[in-house]
Amino acid sequence: MWIIADHLIQQPMGILIFIQRHDIGEILFGLGTPYQGQGLMCKAMTSVIEFLKQSQKLKKIETFCATEHLASRQVLEKTGFHKQQLLHAWTIFPLLGNDLKDCIHYILPLRSK
C-alpha cells in the first residue's frame, strides 16, 4: 500500500493498494476530489508500476474500473493498461451507489511468459 501525500504540509491525498496472488497482481487506487485532474495519480501509478516491474515473479497487473468512472479509465490507459473485457452488472462501487455497475477489466502485462 502506498499513500499519496503532500510532504510539505503532511496531507494525505490518495492511496494505491496492490494485492498479489501468485504471479498476478491487482491494483486499486483513489484520489481525494481536491487533488484530481492534476496528473498526480498518473505520476504515482507510473512510479508504482516501475517498482513492480522489478519483480521477476509478476506476470501481469489487473484491475477493474466502473465504466462510468472516466477519470480512472484515463489513468489506466495513460499508464499502459489495456481493456480486456466489459463485465455487465459486475460489482458494487460504494462511492458510486449500491447497485451493481458495469465495469471494464484492465490488464497490464509485465512479462511475456
Walkthrough of the structure:
The chain is of the alpha+beta class. The chain has a single domain, classed as Aminopeptidase. It has two helices and six strands. The protein has helices at 40-53, 70-78; strands at 2-6, 11-21, 24-31, 60-66, 82-91, 101-109. The chain has a six-stranded mixed beta sheet with strand order 1-2-3-4-6-5, with helices on one face. Strand 1 (2-6) and strand 2 form a beta hairpin. The two termini are 26 Å apart. Residues 12-82 form the N-acetyltransferase domain. This is N-acetyltransferase domain-containing protein. It holds the Pfam family Acetyltransf_3. One of its GO terms (molecular function) is acyltransferase activity, transferring groups other than amino-acyl groups. InterPro entries: Acyl_CoA_acyltransferase, GNAT_dom, N-acetyltransferase.
Q: Cα-atom Rg, whole angstroms?
A: 14 Å
Q: How far do the termini sit from each other?
A: 26 Å
Strand % is 35-45%
Question: What strand order characterises the main sheet?
Answer: 1-2-3-4-6-5
What would the average pLDDT be, to the nearest integer?
92
CATH superfamily: Gcn5-related N-acetyltransferase (GNAT)
Helical content (DSSP H or I, runs of 4+):
10-25%
Overall shape: globular
How many domains make up the coordinates? 1
Top-tier CATH class:
Alpha Beta
Secondary-structure element order, N to C? EEEHEHEE
